[in-house]
């Protein structure tokens, strides 16, 4: 389909979902703005030895959006040096998350890797990012839908990954009544 491509990974999504719930309980979410309920991240990797690389504006990262009726594009948050994100956060050492991290790193040139949770009945802004993304859906529902330009699609939690072209305008909505959880990684060209 236009703007996204399925990649065979054979990940155990039940095991990943259980570890996610445990890390959510122990680590909690990171964001640059607690009022922004639509965005909830747990960072899986970082710039080696640099806790600042997974705090503040670095959690969400640079994007462009049309904030008002003038439809003039605005740039938000700092540019991220994605290629520097090469170290697994220490909390994940020896876990299944580490195995999945190593698997996707062996297949793609990746920057930041994060768990992203979208709450029920929430929607992102209409925006574009500097790079494509690799998604691994973990907990989802048919009502969780990504829209890229004029194409809407649901990514099932089937153990596979999906490369999405986030350099095009897009959003994501969760029309279900459960938290939607994906691993989302930046794909560096
Ligand atoms: Fe995005």
Give structural notes.
The strands form 4 sheets. The chain has a 6-stranded antiparallel beta sheet. A 4-stranded antiparallel beta sheet has the order 8-14-11-12, with no helix packed on it. A 3-stranded antiparallel beta sheet has the order 5-4-9, with no helix packed on it. The model has no long low-confidence stretch (mean pLDDT 96). Helix content is 14%, strand content 34%. It contains 2 helices and 15 strands. It has one domain (4-187): B-lactam Antibiotic, Isopenicillin N Synthase, Chain (Jelly Rolls, Sandwich), CATH 2.60.120. It has 189 residues and is of the alpha+beta class. The protein binds fe (ii) ion (FE2).
Task: Describe this structure in a few short sentences.
With 189 residues, the chain is α+β, with helices and mostly antiparallel strands. It has two helices and 15 strands. It has a single domain, classed as B-lactam Antibiotic, Isopenicillin N Synthase, Chain (Jelly Rolls), CATH 2.60.120.330.
Return the string of H and E elements: EHEEEEEHEEEEEEEEE
Bound compounds, each kind once, are: fe (ii) ion
Can you give the helix content as a percent range? 10-25%
CATH domain class: Mainly Beta
| Beta-strand percent range | 25-35%
Write the CATH homologous superfamily.
B-lactam Antibiotic, Isopenicillin N Synthase, Chain
Give the number of domains.
1
- Kindly report the average pLDDT value: 96
Neighbour order of strands in the largest sheet: 1-13-10-15-7-2
What's the total count of β strands?
15
> Largest sheet, described in full?
6 strands, antiparallel
Poorly predicted spans: none
CATH topology: Jelly Rolls
Shape summary? globular
Q: Number of helical segments? A: 2
- Gap between N and C termini: 20 Å
């Amino acid at each position: 389909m236009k703007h996204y491509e399925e990649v065979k990974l054979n990940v155990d999504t039940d095991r990943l979902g259980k570890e996610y719930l445990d890390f959510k309980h122990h680590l909690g979410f990171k964001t640059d703005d607690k009022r922004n309920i639509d965005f909830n991240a747990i960072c899986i990797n970082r710039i080696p030895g640099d806790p600042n690389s997974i705090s503040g504006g670095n959690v969400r990262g640079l994007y462009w959006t049309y904030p008002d009726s003038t439809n003039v594009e605005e740039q938000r948050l700092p540019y991220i040096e994605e290629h520097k994100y090469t170290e697994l956060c220490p909390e994940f050492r020896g876990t299944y998350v580490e195995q999945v991290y190593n698997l996707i790193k062996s297949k793609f040139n990746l920057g930041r890797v994060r768990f992203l949770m979208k709450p029920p009945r929430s929607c992102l802004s209409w925006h574009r990012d500097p790079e494509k993304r690799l998604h691994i859906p973990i907990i989802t529902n048919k009502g969780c839908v990504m829209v890229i330009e004029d194409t809407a699609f649901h990514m099932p939690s089937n153990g596979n990954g999906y490369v999405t072209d986030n350099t095009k305008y897009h959003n994501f909505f969760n029309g279900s009544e459960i938290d939607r959880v994906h691993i989302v990684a930046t794909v560096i060209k």
